[in-house]
Amino acid sequence: MGVITAVVLAAVIAAAYVVRSTEKAEMQKYYDAAYKMIKENCLNNAIRNQSAPSYGGHKTMVYLKWKDEQKQGFVFDPDQGTRIGRSPGENEICIRDGAVSGRHCVIFLSQGRLAVKDLHSANGTWIIRGLRRRAVDTAEYLLTGDRLVVGTLKIKVTIFTFDMAYL
Predict the structure, then answer these.
(1) Strands of the sheet with 93-94, listed across from one edge
(2) Alpha-carbon distance 11 to 36, whole Å?
(3) How many other β-carbons are positioned within 10 Å of the β-carbon of residue 160?
(4) Looking at residue 54, what DSSP letter applies?
């Protein structure tokens, strides 16, 4: 019995290590994307002689992840917002799905919190939080771990803080 318990325990520890390593690698990817995006915005502002870049404090960023033919992810600044829909010219995230409207929904900051609003789509926008699923009628707040349902796609929401001291 002791040998079997030790083998099972070793397998559980190894599996936990693999999962944690995968999570850390994914987290590094979206932090790197945020770094590039924020750095580019600071450079663009400096070129246009707009406000001086701020290198202190923290910046709230959002990572959206979904699985379709390929695993995809999208990092964005919620201050800028992002639109999701089927029409490539009108949306930052274009989803080729017949159940997705041309302009389906928008994610943005509302009173300092991340929110989503359905743009009168044909099939609606839904939030899954835990075991509860509800339709987005007006602007609804989003939390890390929520799943946003757009058409047949489930999009996982991760809100993270980027340390501006890295710039």
Answers:
(1) 93-94, 82-85, 105-110, 113-118, 140-141
(2) 38
(3) 16
(4) P
Cα 83 to Cα 95: distance, rounded to the nearest angstrom: 11
| CA–CA separation, 13 and 126 (whole Å) | 36
The set of residues, in sequence order, having a beta carbon less than 8 Å from that of 134 and lying 6+ positions away, is 126, 127, 140
In the chain, which ranges are continuous DSSP H helix?
Answer: 2-47
Q: How many CA atoms lie within 13 A of 73 on its CB side?
A: 15
pTM for this model (two decimals): 0.73
DSSP secondary structure of 144-164: TT-EEEETTEEEEEEEEEEEG
The pLDDT, as a whole number, for residue 26 is 73
Tokens encoding 63: 């990572």
For 23, the 3-state DSSP assignment is helix
Could you read off the pLDDT of 88-133 as tens digits, one per residue?
999 999 998 999 999 999 999 999 899 999 999 999 999 999 999 9
